[in-house]
Each structure stands twice: as C-alpha cells, then as structure tokens.
Amino acid sequence: MEDHEYLAPHPGVVYARVQLLSRIYRRRRMIMQSAGSAVLGAGLLVGLVQMHGFIQGDAIPSAQAPGVGTFVSAPPPLPPLSPSVTPSEPHDPDEPERNAYFAAGYGWEEAEKLAALWNLEDPAEAKVKAGARLLDGKRLPFRPFH
CB 111: neighbour CB atoms within 10 A? Predict the structure, then answer.
C-alpha cells in the first residue's frame, strides 16, 4: 500500500483546482447573463419602438404574408379638410361635473367612499353625482381627505 500513496494528489492542490474551476464557471455564468440581458433589452426596445409606431398608425400589418410579424409603412395621410369642415371632438356630457369634483379637492379615494355610501358600483358614477351636487351648491357628506 505504501507503494501507491504517491499517486493521490495533495488535498491543497485539489482544493486550489476546485476554486479555480468555480471562478471560471462563475465568470462564464456572469458573462452569459450579461449577454442575455443585453439581447433581451435590445429586443424589448425594438419591440417598444415597433409597437409605438403601430399604435400611432405609422405601420400596418403586411397583407402579403399572413401570420408573419412583418410590417409595412402606412399609406400617405389624406389631405387636410377644408376650413369650413372641422371634425367634431367627442364631447363628454359628464365633464363639467367631474371638473367640479376635482376642483373641490376630491380624488379617487373619496369617490370610492362616496360610491359605497350611495350604493353605486362604479366610483366614476360617484364622481359625476358628487360633481352635480357641488354644481348645485350642495355639500358632500365629508370633506376631501388631503
């Protein structure tokens, strides 16, 4: 048995090799994570730019390749309308009530409490009802919280 004892490596050498391999693997993992993060970030940025253009109407899906995510630019815009014809803006009938509600200093938390107090499902309805009361000169059940 004494003849073969010299074949086993020294424990210090084994431990140093284990630490060296650990550092190498850790370094590789960090490099791969960094590269993956960079690729993911670039992909998200490109997707954001394309989605923004799609939402704004700058790009439309290509009809040539259905199911493929390619986009072509939108057709040129139509010429402007004559000055006599103006597009009508959508008018919100509840806007004055909501403006009065917010001008009095009330917010979303108060709208939720008013909706619960008045048995309304939607706090937006409570804002409109409260704004109508404020425009009529009536007081609300409580003051704004802030």
Answer: 23
